[in-house]
Design brief:
The protein is mainly alpha-helical. The chain is about 60% helix and about 0% strand. Helix 4 packs across helix 6 and helix 4 crosses helix 11. The longest helix is centred in the N-terminal third of the chain and has 26 residues.
Length: about 375
């Protein structure tokens, strides 16, 4: 079995072509049928894993938030509690990615539980990601202007990579304003509600993205999730007004939410090669080779890329595969493909290596 990386000249040549076309020049040679055969037994989601993993992460996260609120400001105990809260709630929030991939009518109570204990108190109800992310996986949308989760960072100005991370400072207050100020207004005027649903109700990285309006069978659920998320915000304000919830809670919530968006921003930068400057349509093989796996260390890498997202390229090969199967799938393909060079071309050694490569390609693109 050939388990060696592509030769440097092959990678460099492929990279230059990729910057131009957005695709890997050898993508058509990727052994997709063989890959599917190797992972054919890894598609069944285990509800026990989902409920246990999410519940433990969420309990730890909110317990750590409470600890941070009750301990002295800037104390070592508070700092440790905020770090734990960030990592635990980050893992909890990222389950929104799995919710997006569940087949309609499945895991209904898990979605409700996720919304009630994580999505709504963090101001990110499940509908804000569901259809948006599915479009990200559609061949006719991936990497194009219709993909809200894609920007051609590798062929654009480097400062935009920095700006993408820095904007995390303003995201928490914008989320609060979205559900405490704009939400009531959407209840009064349907035209305004549709405008907000299209332009201010999606977890995306392309802020020019305009989301399709909900289907008829989605309108009620979107409206319910919007309203309940707003009620969470108003409840927190009311508890503060009656001196039940201290002001420090809002400070801790802001810091934790900001830190989550920074972590997720770095993970997002490492999730793809972002070379599709022409915003052209791609095949599934090209989409895979424009995505990134960072297997790293099972325990350390899972902190910044939880719930299977360190295997993001493999996920783009098999979008419906449950997160708890992706690690096994990665090593089955790495060790089982007769020629695994193209498969390993999508792997990076670490988060740092992936982000640095993106930065270097962006700088090189500006020079040429």
């Amino acid at each position: 079995m050939m388990q060696v990386a592509l030769k440097k000249e092959q990678i460099d040549g492929g990279m230059k072509a990729a910057v131009k076309s957005g695709a890997h020049p050898e993508a058509e040679n990727f052994p997709l049928k063989e890959a599917r055969r190797l992972v054919r037994d890894l598609w069944k989601p285990d509800a026990r894993i989902y409920w246990t993993d999410f519940s433990i992460s969420t309990i730890i996260g909110w317990a750590a938030v409470a600890t941070a609120v009750l301990t002295p400001i800037a104390s070592i105990a508070q700092v440790i509690a905020i770090i734990i809260a960030t990592l635990a709630l980050y893992r909890s929030v990222i389950f929104i990615h799995e919710l997006a991939h569940f087949r309609k009518g499945t895991f209904t109570w898990f979605r409700r539980f996720w919304n009630a204990t994580c999505g709504m108190p963090m101001m990110v109800p499940a509908y804000t990601y569901a259809d948006v992310h599915i479009d990200h996986h559609k061949p006719q949308h991936y990497g194009t202007a219709e993909d809200g989760e894609y920007l051609p960072f590798a062929v654009d100005k480097p400062w935009k990579i920095i700006a993408f991370i820095v904007q995390a400072f303003i995201v928490p207050p914008l989320l609060v304003a979205r559900y405490s100020v704009l939400m009531p207004l959407t209840l009064l005027n349907k035209r305004f509600r549709n405008y907000i649903w299209q332009r201010a109700s999606s977890l995306v990285i392309d802020f020019a993205y305009v989301r399709p309006l909900p289907k008829k069978d989605q309108e009620a659920s979107w409206l319910i999730e919007d309203t309940l998320t707003g009620l969470y915000a108003y409840t927190a304000f009311a508890l503060f007004y009656f001196d039940i919830l201290p002001l420090l809670f809002f400070g801790v919530w802001y810091v934790v939410t900001f830190a989550i968006f920074v972590l997720n921003g770095l993970r997002t930068l490492a999730a793809h090669a972002y070379r599709n400057g022409g915003r052209e349509r791609m095949t599934q093989q090209e989409e895979f080779l424009d995505s990134v796996d960072v297997p790293g260390n099972r325990y350390i890498s899972s902190l910044w890329a939880p719930v299977g997202l360190r295997f993001h390229a493999t996920h783009h090969l098999f979008p419906g595969m449950p997160y708890h199967s992706l690690e096994k799938a990665y090593f089955l393909l790495k060790n089982g493909l007769p020629d695994n060079r193209l498969y390993l071309a999508a792997s990076r050694k670490s988060l740092w290596a992936a982000v640095v490569q993106l930065w270097r390609e962006s700088k090189a693109a500006q020079q040429t």
